[in-house]
Amino acid sequence: MSEEDTYLRAKLTEINGAIERLTQMLNRMIDVISKVTEIQETQSEIALAVTANSEKLDEILETVKSIKRGGPATQAASSAGVAQKGAVSTNQAVLDTLETQVREGAIASDLSQKISEAAGMLESKGVAEALIVKMQRWTRILRTYGRVDTISPADLQKLRVDIKEWGRELSKMR
User: Fold this and answer.
1) Is 108 exposed, middle or buried, given 0-12, 13-18 or 19+ CB atoms closer than 10 A?
2) How sure is the predictor about 34, in pLDDT bands with cuts at 50, 70 and 90?
3) How many domains does the chain have?
4) What is the model's pTM?
């Protein structure tokens, strides 16, 4: 073999190695592009699912709002002819319902919302401001918990005691 043949052979080997490396790099790039495409397709599917769920949630919220609108109007019409004593009994029923919702493992954010709704309902019926303030205090306390935290047993016990006290205050109004 001549020197030129050896040189050409070495260069061809270098070129062959470079082509193999380029081929490997192209294969990796193709893999990356296919993964990106898969991710984009998955993202599109998730976006469609989110949109569908959002629409369902909007429908549910509208249904709940219409129920809430219909509920207080019906209550207001029926309680218009009821004496003050009957209104206090209704208020007591709100507290009784709230008390049944207080249980071990209750989620703080849910209970906070229910107490807030009960306070709003009682406030609209003319219950003493002091009672409403106490209920709103518990709403603020429960909002200090995380979104899905359970209420500590000590706070649950204090809340039960306060609900009983709220009931006594409503009884005094009779």
Assistant:
1) buried
2) very high
3) 2
4) 0.42
Question: Which range of residues forms the domain containing residue 117?
Answer: 83-174
- Asked if 1 and 65 sit in the same domain, the reply is yes
> What does the pLDDT look like over 7-25, one tens digit per residue?
999 999 999 999 999 999 9
Domain boundary among 59, 81, 103: 81
**Interacting residues of 86 by C-beta distance below 8 A, sequence separation 6+:** 79
How would DSSP label each residue in 81-114? TS-HHHHHHHHHHHHHHHHHH--TT-BHHHHHHH
What is the per-residue pLDDT across 117-146, written as a single tens digit (0 to 9) for each? 888 887 887 777 888 888 888 888 888 887
Letter string b/e over residues 45-75, b meaning 16 or more CB atoms within 10 A of that residue's CB: eeeeeeeeeeeeeeeeeeeeeeeeeeeeeee
Distance CA 118, CA 110 (A): 12
